[in-house]
Amino acid sequence: MDLLDSWENLVFYGLDFEYAALGWTEFSWDGSADAPSSSDRSWDELSEDEKDHATKLCYFEDNWDMIDITPNNGKFPYPKPKSRFSPWNELSD
Questions:
Q1: For the whole model, what pTM was predicted?
Q2: Is 50 exposed, middle or buried (0-12, 13-18, 19+ CB in 10 A)?
Q3: pLDDT in tens, 39-69
Q4: How far apart are CA 53 and CA 90, in angstroms?
Q5: Rounded Cα gap, residues 57 and 14, in angstroms
């Protein structure tokens, strides 16, 4: 069982308040309603209050914006750009 697989689990672990502050409801969480607008915004577009709640859920700018934070010990030690990762079937000839 995954901690985040149901709204009931979020309530049990006391995480529902933080997710609710980001606009999530039981129905949006289970997919029967649309996700909140906060899920489509970048970190810079969140209000300070939303950033505070997201931080309490262990989000910060890089992982909220889905920047690759995997260590890169190669010759180019910077995060890999999103555009580098394309599914094979989306590549053009």
A1: 0.72
A2: buried
A3: 999 999 999 999 999 999 999 998 898 877 7
A4: 35
A5: 11
